[in-house]
Amino acid sequence: MKKNYARLMLAILVFAATVRAFGDEVRLKNGDRISGTIVEQTDAAVVLETEYAGRITIARTHIEKIAEPAQAPGGPSVAAAAPKPVAPPPPPKARLFGGRFMGLADGWEGAANVGFSYTSGNSNNTTMTTGVRAVKHGINDDLTVYARSLWNSTRGNGQIKTTQNAFWGGARYDRNLDQKMFGFVSYDFESDRPKGLHFRSVVGTGVGHHTIKNEKTQVDILAGGAWNRTWQRGPDTDTPEALAGVTLKHRFNDRLRLQKAFTFFQNATDITEYRYIFDATLSVDVTKRIGFYFSAGDRYNNDPIRTAKKNDFLFTTGMKWNFGKKR
Do β-strands 290-301 and 311-323 pair in parallel, antiparallel, or remain unpaired? Predict the structure, then answer.
């Protein structure tokens, strides 16, 4: 009887030692090791049952590793769940004007496009369009630049006549004032010599509001003032203007995007004179770098130069090339 009792006690002691030897072990980043049995795990913490301190809760941020117990003799191993890998924090934004050449050589993302058409026979026309738009994001500010050109000529009776040779572009610097409001400074220019506009230079400033801003859609409303200096066929002009505008950026998915901009300029010295600029582009990415686009532009001036028409409408399509990181 005593021998059987002794054997039973020996078996119990061996089993307890085996369980203790092959329990869970939590290794901390400071080098400490805590043994016990894991009773609960979350993304934030691990709860461990120990013989000497009862249940203790350890934050995931202090845990280096949860060691899987070795296999106990004669039985399967009890696997401890490993902690989920912690994603590294995103890299901090660089300063807008920091880096090579005051930051003007790095960090840009955007797209360049080109379109070309040629007809002969009953219609003899050649049209070429080019464009580029790029943006750079800083810690608390953004810089956007754009440029477009349009060249059109007609052929007939052995002569080539250039009907349009226009280019326009500009830049806008935005500085966040808070989560919704921002201030901006802009510069826009345009030229169309066949229509008598040698060069127009417009400097503007004002405030804007991020009316909608999320992962897919951004709508900004702008208001401010501008100074319009125009060199043209006839007397040159200097005109103060009030400006108001709205911009829209919408991403339908990773490949399809829509962008619109409308800006209205009111002559501050003559309420009967005004003009507006409208641009819209729908772009489709075929690959990460290559895609195609559909673009429409409208430039209206209710008091044009001499015999020039009030409205210029342009629709173009062609290929585009994305640069920088994928937008």
Answer: antiparallel
Q: Which residue range is the domain that position 124 belongs to? A: 100-323
Domain identity same for 50 and 121: no
- The answer to whether residues 103 and 97 touch, using CB atoms and an 8 Å cutoff, is yes
Q: 230 near 236, Cβ under 8 Å?
A: yes
Confidence at residue 87, expressed as pLDDT on a 0 to 100 scale: 55
Residue 91 lies in a domain: no
Report the chain's terminal Cα–Cα distance, integer Å: 82
Rounded-to-integer distance, Cα 67 and Cα 26, Å: 6
Instruction: Determine the pLDDT at residue 7.
Output: 58
pLDDT < 50: residue spans in the chain: 12-22, 71-73, 75-81, 327
For residue 250, how far is the Cα from the chain centroid?
A: 11
Task: Choose among 137, 125, 153: nearest CA to 94.
Answer: 137
Q: Dig out the tokens for 189 from the structure.
A: 């220019």
Q: How many domains does the chain have?
A: 2
Is the whole model's pTM more than 0.85, yes or no?
no
pLDDT at 3: 55
Q: How far apart are CA 232 and CA 284, in angstroms?
A: 38
Cβ contacts of 214 within 8 Å, gap of 6 or more: none
Q: What's the rounded Cα separation, in Å, for the pair 236 and 128?
A: 29
Question: Is residue 184 within 8 Å of residue 208, measured between CB atoms?
Answer: yes
Provide the 8-state DSSP code for 5.
H
Could you tell me the CATH number of the domain that includes residue 55? 2.30.30.100
Residues 63 and 104 in one domain: no
> What pLDDT, on a 0 to 100 scale, did the predictor assign at position 79?
45
With respect to residue 80, please indicate whether it lies within any of the assigned structural domains.
no
CA distances from 207 to 82, 138, 222, 244 (A): 51, 18, 6, 10
Same domain? 187 vs 252: yes
273 located within any domain: yes
List, for residues 155-171, the tens digit of each pLDDT value.
877 788 888 888 889 99
Same domain for 109 and 38: no
